[in-house]
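Translate structure to sequence.
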C-alpha cells in the first residue's frame, strides 16, 4: 500500500530541521496557513511525520487501542539524556508495567506530603532574592524547581551528597539553554564525546557524576534498611510489580534523571510565563491576591491549590505556553483511518498541542490571556492537553500543577512584583521546551 501523506512544506529537509529548531511555533503557524490543520513535515534526521492540529483528529488517535501504536520508539531522541531505562522510551507491556510501578508517588496521599515542602522552599528562596533590584524570574524559578526535585523527588536536602549533586544537576540542565546548544539533541553527528571539554563530552561527564552520586544514595538507603521516606525515590525503591519484582538500580537512576528533565525545565519555564502574564495584567494580579488573602489564608496547601481563580490562571498559562509544542509521535502499527485519511503502518502521527490551544473556534482571541475562559467552560481532553493525553499523559502532571499553584500562592501575597520593561517577552527554544527569551526580569519588594 502506498501511504498518501497530507501535503506539507516542499523546502529541503535540512531547512525544515533548522526552522523546527529555531522556532517550531511560527513554523507550525505558517504550515496551517498554507496546508490546513493536518500536514506533513520532512525534517532531516527524522522520518516524515504528520502534524495534526485538529482536536477531532486527536480524539480519534486517543480513542485508538494503545497497542496500535509505538510511542517509545519515537522518543529515542531523548535517550542520550534520559537513558535506555526511561519510561519515555518504553512501549507496550513494558511501558504499562513501568508506568504502574511509578504512578503511586505522583498521586493521592503523596501529593499531601509534598505540598508543604513546596510552600516552604518557595518562601525561603523568595526571601533570599535581592529586593528592589532586577532579578531574572526564570533563574528564581529554576532554583525553586531544583530544590523541589532534590527534596521531593530525590529525597536529598542536606549533607555532603546534596552539596555535590546540586551543581552537577544545574550544569546538566544548563547545557541545553539555547537554540544552539539544543541542536545537540537533534543532530546525531554532534553527539561525539571528545572529553569533558567538548560540548557533548561535557554532557556525558556531568551525567556520569550524577549517576555515581545517585548510586551512592541508593546503596546507602538499602544498606541502612531504614523506614521508607515520603520522597519519590523512596517510594520507587519499595514499589513492586505483581510478581514481586522491584526496579533495578539502573532503572531507578534513569527514571530519576527523566524526572529531573521532565519536572525541572518544564515547571521552571511555565512558572516564569505565569509571572510574566500575571504582572502584565494588573487586574488579574489583583483578583489572584484577593482570592489568596480572603479565601486561602487559613487553608491547607492542597486546599489552596483548588481555589478557582488560581486554577483558571494556571490553566490559561498552560494553554498559551505548552511546554513542548507537539506530543511525541504515535507510530502506527496497523492501517488506520484518521480524519477520513487512511494511514499505513509505520506512519508517524504527531498531535500538536500548540495548534489546538490556539484555535480561534475553541479559544476566541487565543493570543489574549483570559483566565475566565476556564471558569466559563470545561474543555475536553483532546481540546486542552498541556500534559498530553491517552496512555502517555505526563505521569507527574498533578505534581507539576501543584507546584505551579503553590509557588504562585506562596509568593504573590507576600511581595510586590513589577516587570522591568514593557517590551513583550518572546518564546525561545530551550532544549525540548519553549521558554521566555531573557528569562523575564522583574523586581521583588515587600508587599
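Result:
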Amino acid at each position: 500500500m502506498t501511504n498518501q501523506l497530507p501535503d506539507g512544506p516542499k523546502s529541503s529537509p535540512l531547512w525544515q530541521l533548522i526552522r523546527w529548531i529555531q522556532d517550531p511555533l511560527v513554523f507550525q503557524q505558517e504550515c496551517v496557513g498554507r496546508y490546513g490543520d493536518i500536514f506533513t513535515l520532512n525534517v532531516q534526521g527524522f522520518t516524515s511525520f504528520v502534524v495534526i492540529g485538529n482536536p477531532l483528529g486527536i480524539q480519534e488517535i486517543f480513542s485508538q487501542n494503545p497497542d496500535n501504536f509505538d510511542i517509545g520508539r519515537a522518543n529515542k531522541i531523548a535517550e542520550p539524556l534520559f537513558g535506555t531505562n526511561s519510561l519515555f522510551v518504553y512501549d507496550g507491556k513494558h511501558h504499562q508495567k513501568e508506568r504502574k510501578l511509578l504512578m503511586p508517588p505522583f498521586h493521592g496521599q503523596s501529593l499531601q506530603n509534598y505540598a508543604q515542602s513546596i510552600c516552604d522552599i518557595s518562601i525561603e528562596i523568595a526571601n533570599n532574592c535581592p529586593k528592589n533590584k532586577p532579578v531574572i524570574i526564570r533563574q528564581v524559578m529554576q532554583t525553586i524547581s531544583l530544590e523541589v526535585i532534590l527534596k521531593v523527588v530525590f529525597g536529598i536536602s542536606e549533607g555532603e551528597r546534596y552539596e555535590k549533586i546540586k551543581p552537577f544537576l544545574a550544569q546538566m540542565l544548563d547545557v541545553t539553554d539555547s537554540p544552539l546548544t539544543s541542536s545537540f539533541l537533534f543532530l546525531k553527528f554532534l553527539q561525539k564525546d571528545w572529553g569533558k571539554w567538548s560540548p557533548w563530552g561535557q554532557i556525558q561527564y556531568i551525567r556520569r557524576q550524577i549517576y555515581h552520586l545517585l548510586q551512592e544514595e541508593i546503596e546507602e538507603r538499602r544498606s541502612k534498611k531504614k523506614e521508607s521516606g515520603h520522597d519519590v525515590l523512596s517510594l520507587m525503591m519499595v514499589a513492586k510489580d505483581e510478581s514481586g519484582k522491584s526496579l533495578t538500580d539502573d532503572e531507578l537512576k534513569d527514571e530519576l534523571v527523566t524526572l529531573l528533565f521532565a519536572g525541572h525545565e518544564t515547571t521552571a519555564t511555565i512558572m516564569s510565563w505565569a509571572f510574566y502574564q500575571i504582572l502584565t495584567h494588573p487586574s488579574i494580579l489583583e483578583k489572584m491576591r484577593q482570592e489568596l488573602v480572603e479565601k486561602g489564608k487559613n487553608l491547607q496547601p492542597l486546599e489552596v491549590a483548588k481555589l478557582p481563580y488560581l486554577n483558571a490562571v494556571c490553566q490559561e498559562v498552560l494553554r498559551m505556553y505548552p511546554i513542548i509544542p507537539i506530543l511525541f509521535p504515535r507510530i502506527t502499527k496497523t492501517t488506520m483511518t484518521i480524519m477520513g485519511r487512511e494511514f499505513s503502518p509505520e506512519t508517524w502521527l504527531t498531535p500538536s498541542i500548540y495548534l489546538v490551544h490556539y484555535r480561534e473556534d475553541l479559544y476566541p482571541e487565543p493570543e489574549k490571556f483570559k483566565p475566565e475562559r476556564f471558569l466559563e467552560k470545561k474543555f475536553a481532553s483532546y481540546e486542552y492537553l498541556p500534559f498530553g493525553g491517552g496512555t502517555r499523559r505526563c505521569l507527574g502532571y498533578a505534581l507539576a500543577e501543584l507546584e505551579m499553584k503553590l509557588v504562585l500562592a506562596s509568593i504573590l501575597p507576600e511581595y510586590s512584583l513589577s516587570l522591568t520593561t514593557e517590551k513583550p517577552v518572546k518564546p525561545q527554544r530551550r532544549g525540548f521546551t519553549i521558554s521566555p527569551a531573557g528569562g523575564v526580569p522583574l523586581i521583588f519588594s515587600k508587599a
